[in-house]
Amino acid sequence: MTTNETLAVMEKTRTKAAATAALDTFFFETETHCLIRERVFSVLEARETRLARGLYEQKGAALIGPAGSGKSTMMARVIREYEEAAVATGGREFGHRIVSAIVPGKASVKDTCCAVLREIGYPTKGNRTEDYLIDCLRRQLQHHHIAAIHLDEIQDAGRYATEEAMSAFAKRFRNLMQVGPWPVSLILTGTSEGREFINHDPTLTRRLRPVEILAMTPEADGPTLRNAMTKLLAGTGLTDEGLFCLAEFMPLMMHAAAYRFGLAVEITIEALSEALEMGDVRVTLDHFAEAYYVRTNSDDELNPFLSEHWRGIDTSRAMDRFYQDTNAAKKPRKRK
């Protein structure tokens, strides 16, 4: 039987989820976003021009960065921006639609073809050969006037494969960029391991225009991150009473997020949600500490928002334990 306590927990959770979802809709334009947008727009507009002149060989783009750097959100935004801009300027003779698919864990050519075909709206049935699926994909790309294929998690194309399998995968998909009558551009996103796949095939390397998301630094990225956090704060009606402007806060925030912009935004959203849930009017380090704890379940001594020695904490780890004085009673979450 559902108890009043259970219903109260559910209502509290729903309220917090609604607040978090509202903040999740924010998008922050960064230098990397502008750079990859230029790359994607450039290769797609070049494709249109080249096909009009009967030239089949096309270029592609790649966005590589660690998990939590915001690359998937960034690429989704760029794809939407291109498609909307193409429609607003009269469309494109050779198509403007970009179809996105996630590279399956086993990263076979067959499974990846099936994943792309499903996203196009053409699911395959039965056990088909690789040649059949590639030919089917080519026909559907032309039939639906698709300009580019976006493959996400491209690092999985090489992680579990042999050298031969990786080469075969790269060759199959780069050939889609050059074989007529309907070559498409290839757009890749993945973690840092994706560089291995891209560099494995010299021809693919030559045809791609890559952008790598580097670790944040206070000097280069501090103003951008502060601006993003301030916009999120404004969306909640809370105040930070100057917290975000403190000299030490941005380096601390970046370290807590393992120097990844997307993760820093997520931690900020969770901290603001904690403050709203508790009925506070301002967000403090304690809210960030709680958000970090919920995200990692690490001991307080290894919470950068609580420890004076935060620079020595490995914030890429979850469920980290501080083994000294393990029998001591847990202290309340307050900055040391």
UniProtKB/TrEMBL annotation:
Organism: Salipiger aestuarii
Entry's Gene Ontology molecular function annotations: ATP hydrolysis activity
Positions of the ORC1/DEAH AAA+ ATPase domain: 60-195
Protein name per Swiss-Prot or TrEMBL: AAA domain-containing protein
